[in-house]
Q: What sequence folds into this?
């Protein structure tokens, strides 16, 4: 694994190697495998969407990446250092370079702090400005996210849902991060507010050159925001690659099913996948998707496919991918994606 | 020609003096589906609840006519409404886990409307319940009858709710965001099921939705609501693919699609219902507003088979 | 109370923010009739207590056997007791004793209780276990009985009453504070602060404390009326303040034997006590309702 790093011209920001995460349930008698064999990298300036439905493990993955949960197995590296053994300075540097926007934006803001204080906190913490400069920085951040200056002294309870999310984005930007990790930041918003926020995120990503990891269940949001896409199902990344490519030619039946299920203006209602998502506590033997896959074959019940490289920068975990004639069996399972 | 299933004429609903629904008029022919779309606070859920007779004086003031079949909901007695609900009108709520009583089994939920409106005996109830669960695509229905809501997945709970709503084969089904809380692959299944059952019964349906694309897929007609008013209504494909009202156009332009180049959100925010501008309510945010728009409330004009409330559609 | 976290920004807006902060607090309170009524009553008693020397027509301990056991008259508005002391004056001075004991005992109990609760909630583990078992022990006894026991050990007098009551309040406060701390600890913004690498000390002071302050203070307010009632009870039983200190409990005890002959002896201080308690309760409940985020109609 280490060799792969040295040959890369620039170290990726995040490298996840064979991450597994399971939780004890049923008073410790069984284990819930939330993440299974995750291999992922995030490079500087790159935007990655983690797409999945409930039980896919996308939120757990993000929490593991941020160090909020320790993986049961596998390694996470930020730059060249392992997250698990960070010292105080590395921890501080990590907190500054990686900003997280919670799904519950309102809950992630201290209700007893004004907007100005909320935005000033990270600036002060990392010593990014002189104390006299801080009010200016606050104004700067507010205008970056399109909020009027007079919300400075308001409290989160006085702001609307859309405004609160913007404050959360502004706070994430306050420490001048290299990566922004956002969890379902536009779910549940009115169409117009959602559009504003999406435009904001996209513009920020482009103008500031930020890397972004965006967790969403909505493929169209992923398409709008991110260059790369990783589709997750029951704790595994089943398909990964450039967003455009993956959506135009999905190779994994789940990806295709997911795409078909999204309501479109130009297509009738299509039921693409039958059945329910199995519980992560009761994973099917063999390929975990086979219970819902219309192309499942005999070997799908025996072998659990792992991630393989199929093409330039596409990765797939499927024994019988859709319509791809020459599946390149070149790169071994150890290749990083 | 049969009377329309739903006929609303100049309905105004006031809550504490604020007009939550303002002079709303719409008609739904029998056997057709209508989607109410709009953003939060537009009044679509209020209209849906009002049609069920769930929003009534003294909490609110109702003016105008709201006919379901040949019953005027505005003036009807509570007794009459109770007989209607469940028997001729069914409702499906957004959050199935909140709408189902955690103390009752699936069977008890289903038995309630069956006993009440159809006066079935215990064994008849049981059989009918099994039938209903099977019709909504639940495998092994006999076993499921004994389950409590929390033992079921979100999709299953929603199916049970559909079964309850359709138990007495109502003529009007109202669904308030029936799939918003579900995963998208389950959403497709549930919507397809719902539509199938509604069509099989020859019933009419009103869907409250916020997803425009979904509206085109499931509804025959669509009514776009803004700040308590209907601004545009007509055949779904027509209205949503060739919008005429600036608000509908704005919604369409900000709705995210797979190959969207750039989203164009609508400028401004919805004004508070208690501080509505005179004239057209959308005027402050409208790029093509004229002086007439700010002073005079636009009348509903028909353009082809679409009704638009705008001076300059 | 909307205890705002101390501002990081010292700008000219500071005074404006303080005013804004106060206005945020005052507006909902103003709308609540219950709170205002309670506030009015309590203010009245506080004024009476503070200005008792000026307001009282007689010294509370001035004895005049000639006028003993007189009913209300022009000379003595509330009558006199068996020593000829003016009951009105003693009632006024009694307000001092009641309010002081109430305030001091609750403050002391609050201080210790919050410290214990914070320690238990934030530390967890064995410290939490040990502290909470100790608190359970304290809570096992009814407050009055425990206060009586303390008085028996410590001896009589106002300061000991304050001490005894404070001790019996530590338990309830500690338990509530711990529960609130645990609740706040679980909220996303605490985790968000940790993620931002905010130092632990700052998390406690800026993030945890301001968010538990509001319910705790309202509870403390409610407890003042309990304290006053308990104090009066102790004095009534002869285990509290010593005569001739003017104290409502003592006065009621003295008047108890003469209820049929001279009802004003126990009646007046009893009325005063009841009124103050009602005022305090109205105020505390009104504040709680006014400041509850749900009833304020804010985004929750």
A:
């Amino acid at each position: 694994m280490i060799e792969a790093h040295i040959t890369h011209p620039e170290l990726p920001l995040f490298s996840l190697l064979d991450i597994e995460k399971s939780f004890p349930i049923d008073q410790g008698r069984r284990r819930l495998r939330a993440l299974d064999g995750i291999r992922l990298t995030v490079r500087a300036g790159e935007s990655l969407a983690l797409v999945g439905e409930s039980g896919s493990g996308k939120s757990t993955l993000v929490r593991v990446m941020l160090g909020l949960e320790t993986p049961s197995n596998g390694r996470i590296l930020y730059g060249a250092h392992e997250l698990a053994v960070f010292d105080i300075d590395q921890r501080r540097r990590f907190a500054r370079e990686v900003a997280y926007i919670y799904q519950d934006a309102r809950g992630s803001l201290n209700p007893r702090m004004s907007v100005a204080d909320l935005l000033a906190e990270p600036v002060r913490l990392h010593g990014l400005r002189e104390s006299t400069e801080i009010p200016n920085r606050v104004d700067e951040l507010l205008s970056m996210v399109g909020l009027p200056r007079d919300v400075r002294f308001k409290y989160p309870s006085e702001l609307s849902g859309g405004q609160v999310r913007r404050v959360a984005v502004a706070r994430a930007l306050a420490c001048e991060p290299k990566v922004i990790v956002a969890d379902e930041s536009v779910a549940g918003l009115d169409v117009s507010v959602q559009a504003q926020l999406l435009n904001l995120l996209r513009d920020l990503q482009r103008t500031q050159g930020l890397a972004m990891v965006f967790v969403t269940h909505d493929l169209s949001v992923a398409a709008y925001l991110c260059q790369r896409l990783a589709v997750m199902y029951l704790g595994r990344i089943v398909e990964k690659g450039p967003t455009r490519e993956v959506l135009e030619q999905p190779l994994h039946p789940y990806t295709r099913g997911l795409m078909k299920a999204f309501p479109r203006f130009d297509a009738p209602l299509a039921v693409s996948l039958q059945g329910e998502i199995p519980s992560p506590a009761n994973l099917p033997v063999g390929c975990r998707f086979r219970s819902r896959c219309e192309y499942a074959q005999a070997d799908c019940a025996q072998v659990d496919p792992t991630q393989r490289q199929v093409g330039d920068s596409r990765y797939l975990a499927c024994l019988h991918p859709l319509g791809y004639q020459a599946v390149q069996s070149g790169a071994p399972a150890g290749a990083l994606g | 020609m049969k009377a329309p299933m739903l006929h609303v004429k100049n309905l105004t609903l006031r809550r504490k003096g604020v007009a939550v629904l303002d002079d709303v008029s719409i008609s739904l022919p029998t056997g057709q589906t209508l989607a109410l779309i709009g953003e939060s606070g537009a009044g679509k859920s209020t209209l849906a609840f009002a049609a069920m007779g769930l929003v009534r004086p003294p909490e609110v003031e109702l003016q105008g006519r709201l006919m379901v079949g040949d019953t005027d909901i505005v003036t009807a007695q509570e007794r009459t409404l109770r007989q209607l609900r469940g028997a001729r009108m069914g409702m499906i709520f957004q959050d199935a886990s909140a709408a189902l009583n955690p103390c009752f089994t699936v069977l008890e939920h289903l038995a309630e409307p069956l006993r009440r409106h159809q006066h079935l005996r215990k064994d008849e109830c049981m059989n009918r319940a099994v039938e209903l669960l099977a019709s909504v695509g639940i495998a092994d229905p006999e076993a499921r009858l004994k389950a409590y809501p929390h033992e079921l997945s979100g999709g299953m709970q929603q199916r049970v709710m559909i079964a309850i709503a359709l138990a007495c084969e109502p003529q009007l089904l109202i669904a308030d965001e029936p799939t918003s809380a579900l995963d998208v692959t389950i959403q497709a299944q549930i919507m397809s099921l719902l539509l199938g059952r509604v069509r099989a019964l020859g019933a009419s349906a009103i869907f409250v939705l916020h997803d425009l694309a979904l509206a085109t897929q499931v509804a025959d007609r669509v009514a776009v609501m803004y700040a308590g008013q209907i601004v545009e209504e007509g055949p779904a494909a027509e209205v949503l693919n060739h919008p005429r009202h600036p608000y509908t156009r704005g919604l369409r332009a900000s709705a995210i699609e797979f190959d969207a180049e750039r989203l164009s959100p609508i400028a401004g925010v919805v004004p508070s219902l208690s501080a509505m501008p005179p004239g057209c309510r959308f005027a402050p945010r409208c790029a093509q507003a004229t002086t007439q728009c700010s002073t005079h409330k636009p009348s509903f004009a028909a353009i082809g088979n679409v009704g638009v409330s705008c001076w300059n559609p | 109370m909307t205890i705002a976290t101390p501002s990081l920004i010292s700008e000219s807006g500071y005074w404006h923010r303080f005013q804004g902060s106060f206005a945020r607090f005052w507006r909902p309170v103003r709308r609540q009739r219950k709170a205002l009524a309670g506030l009015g009553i309590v203010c009245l008693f506080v004024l009476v207590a503070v200005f008792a020397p000026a307001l009282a027509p007689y010294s509370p301990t001035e004895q005049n056997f000639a006028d003993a056991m007189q009913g209300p008259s022009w000379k003595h508005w509330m009558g006199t007791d068996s020593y000829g002391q003016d009951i009105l004056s003693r009632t006024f001075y009694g307000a001092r004793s009641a309010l002081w004991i109430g305030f001091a005992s609750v403050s002391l109990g609050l201080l210790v209780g919050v410290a214990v609760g914070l320690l238990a909630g934030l530390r967890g583990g064995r410290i939490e276990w040990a502290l909470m078992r100790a608190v359970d022990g304290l809570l096992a006894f009814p407050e009055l009985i425990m206060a009586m026991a303390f008085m028996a050990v410590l001896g009589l007098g106002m300061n000991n009453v304050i001490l005894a009551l404070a001790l019996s309040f530590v338990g309830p406060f500690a338990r509530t504070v711990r529960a609130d701390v645990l609740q706040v600890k679980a909220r996303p913004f605490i985790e968000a602060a940790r993620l931002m690498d905010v130092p632990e000390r700052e998390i406690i002071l800026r993030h945890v404390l301001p968010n538990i302050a509001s319910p705790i203070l309202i509870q403390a307010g409610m407890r003042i009326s309990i304290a006053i009632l308990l104090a009066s009870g102790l004095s009534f039983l002869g285990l509290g303040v010593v005569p001739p200190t003017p104290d409502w409990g003592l006065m009621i005890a003295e008047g108890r034997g003469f209820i049929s002959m001279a009802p004003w002896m126990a009646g007046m201080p009893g009325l005063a006590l009841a009124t103050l308690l009602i005022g305090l309760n109205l105020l505390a409940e009104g504040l709680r309702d006014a400041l509850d985020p749900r009833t304020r109609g804010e985004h929750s």
User: Anything to note?
Assistant: The first strand of chain A starts at residue 14 and ends at 25. The radius of gyration of chain A is 21 Å.
